[in-house]
UniProtKB/TrEMBL annotation:
Sequence ranges assigned to domain Ig-like in this UniProt record: 14-113, 122-212
GO molecular function, one term: cell adhesion molecule binding
Membrane-spanning intervals of the chain: 222-240
Protein name per Swiss-Prot or TrEMBL: TMIG1 protein
PANTHER family cross-referenced by the UniProt entry: IRREGULAR CHIASM C-ROUGHEST PROTEIN-RELATED, NEPHRIN
Biological processes per GO annotation: cell-cell adhesion
Gene: Tmigd1
UniProt keyword annotation of Zinc present: no
Keyword list, A-Z: Disulfide bond, Glycoprotein, Immunoglobulin domain, Membrane, Transmembrane, Transmembrane helix
Amino acid sequence: MAQRRSLAVPYRAPVLAISFLACVATGLELSINNHAADFTLSAELGPPISLSCVVHNSSQAEELLWYRGDGQVGLKDGNKVNISNICISPVNESDHGVTFTCKLARDKSVQVSVSLDVQFPPRLSGEETLHVEEDKDVTLTCNSKSNPQAQTTWYKDNHNLTLQQNRHELHQTSEVFQLSIRKVQKSDNGTYTCVVESRLGNGTRDFYLIVEDKKPVFPKEAVIAAVVVVTITILFGIVARKDKFFKVW
């Protein structure tokens, strides 16, 4: 019986050791700017942002990795162990909504992330001059990037645009504001202004709509029919006078 008890001790020892190591590994934590859980960081255009990732509950040197979205950020050798810093400078519109993640190199499941909420006033773009024939449809597209989302108003020749049912239609998404006009008329000629307003500022963009005279429709069917008639007439004429042609030859 004594021998059986002595055999049981070394059998259990590796299990206890493995359990102890698992507790040490899972006890590691990371934090970004003192945030141990994922968070959102508000920012403005221009001023740089510093992000600092720190390892907690570690008794040894731990290598850290940074990711911008899905792409890994290159770090210098002295900026990888136990604490790592990156700087976003200058902050611009393309950084809005981007997630930066700090991960433990030997166990990438240990990680923490920060998403940037970059706020900026409206930035507008779009084709400025549009030519359209009378009785055709046209769409003015005002592209706008802003955070927070802005409100849009359309003007014509510096006056509030009066929307006519079945002729004017507005379409709006987070970044696109469209004004569609059906069967344009000469009276639709003019300058259309897209005004985008947010609490951080306003943006305007002018669109010049030039309504041209309606081009005459080329009667292709009538011309084809006339060519066919002329061709058939010539052929019948040749057939009717074939005897004379043969005599000449």
